[in-house]
Amino acid sequence: MSFLFYLLIAAICAIIAERIIPGSIPGGFITAIIFGVIGAWLGGILMGSFGPQLAGVALIPCIMGSGILVFTVSLFSNTFRNRKIV
Which SS3 state, helix, strand or coil, does residue 85 take? Predict the structure, then answer.
């Protein structure tokens, strides 16, 4: 049960990051869960574990890591979308 709560908190952090950072998460809630888990891992590596925690997720690094991930993915998806095939 705690793993499901972890996934829910990670998805909510990814959705918050999507609202803050210009860009969007392609897909729905399942993709937000994936972005949240990867963002929590990335934020934990870059910033450590500080700030409030909920269900084992440090909220500030998770939101920051998810924001970096959302920005990077939206940057690459826009680059490949605008590319012309000759």
Answer: coil
Residue 86, domain member (yes or no):
no
In a domain, 85, yes or no: no
Q: How far apart are CA 74 and CA 34, in angstroms?
A: 15
Q: What is the pTM of this model?
A: 0.81
pLDDT in tens, the chain (86 residues): 788 898 888 888 888 888 888 777 777 788 888 888 998 899 889 888 888 888 888 889 999 999 998 888 888 876 666 666 65
Domain coverage including residue 46: 2-79
Residue 51, in any domain of the structure: yes
Instruction: Compute the distance between CA of residue 68 and CA of residue 46 in angstroms, rounded to an integer.
Output: 11
